[in-house]
Specification:
The protein is α+β, with helices and mostly antiparallel strands. A 5-stranded mixed sheet has the order 2-4-5-7-6. A hairpin with a 6-residue loop joins strand 6 and strand 7. Helix 4 crosses helix 5. The longest helix is centred in the last third of the chain and has 19 residues. The radius of gyration is 17 Å and the shape is globular. The protein starts with 13 loop residues before the first helix and ends in a 22-residue tail after the last helix. The relative contact order is 0.20.
Length: 247
């Protein structure tokens, strides 16, 4: 909690991210709900009735192993709470369209281009292009937080999916650096974001800078932040025997 967040990226450039080549390694998607001692699945989009959302969260095998490794470093009784992981294209499109309409209402004087730019800060462009997949559609992205030993979500300064600048991972670090005196609640959020960031970074995850809850491993986001030559994961889907309509 005392180690400041050292995010190597100051400004996210999606066009650079999507140029990263992918060398698919073929890892399966696996469910996250089978280790409830340390990982709780709370599928936010399914709970909210988003069309196409699933009641389980899936990630690639290595992502699962790294989450378990990080979870075992949490304070006694604390758990990761997973809001979302692998995301079908249908859900990605629904989230993109819904947020764009909300922002259009909030900023009626802005151009369509500016509204799309604001939308892309919080929801990646839905994509079926195998060379430019949405991060969550690869199984290499996970949205999560931490609950304490009594099941209370730690204060992170905003709710999950809050589409404001306060969701930027280093928001409270930047306030501190500017000389602003943080309130007790802001100091608490700063420490909790540091805990989440440093635990996940220690096992190989990278963070999407505009969302304190979003972490990546193996996908193009991860490769770009880590200056790697290629990503490990492209588009994927769970091994559903009876469903071929989910992608």
């Amino acid at each position: 909690k005392k180690i400041p967040i050292s995010n190597p990226i100051e400004r996210w450039v999606w066009e650079e991210v999507r140029r990263i080549p992918i060398r698919e390694n073929g890892e399966r998607l696996v469910p996250l709900s089978l280790y409830p001692e340390r990982i709780i699945v709370h599928p936010e989009y399914f709970i909210q009735g988003i069309r196409g959302a699933l009641p389980e969260c899936y990630v690639r095998e290595s992502v699962y192993e790294k989450l378990v490794e990080a979870a075992d470093l949490l304070p006694p009784g604390y758990k990761f709470v997973i809001f979302d992981a692998w995301r079908p294209i249908q859900v990605q499109q629904s989230l993109f369209d819904t947020l764009k309409e909300r922002l259009r209402r909030e900023y009626p004087s802005e151009s369509e281009e500016e509204i799309v730019r604001r939308t892309l800060t919080f929801v990646a462009l839905p994509s079926k292009d195998p060379l430019r997949p949405s991060p969550h559609n690869t199984g290499g992205a996970v949205d999560l937080t931490i609950a304490d030993d009594r099941g209370r979500l730690l204060n992170m300064g905003t709710e999950y999916d809050d589409p404001t600048e306060r969701s930027r991972t280093t928001y409270f670090e930047e306030l501190l650096e500017s000389g602003k005196r943080l309130s007790r609640e802001e100091e608490e959020a700063l420490e909790n974001r540091r805990l989440l960031f440093n635990l996940l970074a220690s096992v190989g995850f990278t963070n999407y800078i505009d969302e304190w809850w979003h972490y990546d491993y193996g996908n193009q986001n991860w490769a770009w932040v880590g200056k790697r030559e290629h990503a490990l994961y492209g588009r994927a889907k769970p091994p559903f025997m009876w469903r071929d309509d989910i992608e």
